What does this fold into?
Amino acid sequence: MAEQVDVEELAVALRASVGLLARRLREAPSAGELSLSERSALSRLERGGPVTPSALAKLERVSPQSMGATVRALEERGLVERRADPGDGRRVLLSVTDGARELVGQRRTERAALLARALDAGLDRGELELLAAAVPLIEKVAERI
It folds into this structure.
C-alpha cells in the first residue's frame, strides 16, 4: 500500500523551498545593481509594456508616492521614459528604454547561470532528472493559484 501524501505539509514545504530559491536568486549581486522595488517595477514594465504611473503603483501594491520615487530613480539612470498617452494626451505612460531591456536580460542570464552552476555542482544525474520532471508540475500548480 502506497504511503499517502499530506497535501498541507507538502504545500508548506514547497512554498518554503521555492520561496528560498526565489529569494536567493533575487538577492544575488548583479552588475548595475538596482533596489528590489526598482527591479520589480522595471521587470513589470518590461514584461507588461507601457502603463501609467498610478497603474504601475497599483500593480506593484505600493503607494503612488513610493512609485514616484522609484520611477524617478529609474528615469535618472535612463531606464524608464515618460511619453504622452496617444489615446489621451493628458495622461503619461511609462515604458522601458533599450538600456533597461538589456539590463533586465543580463540580470535574467546571470540568475540562470547562477542556478545552472548550483544544479551542476550540487545534484547528481538522478536528482537532476527528478527535478526536471518536477518543473512542469510546479508550473501546473502555479497556473492554478
Notes: DSSP finds six helices and two strands in the chain.
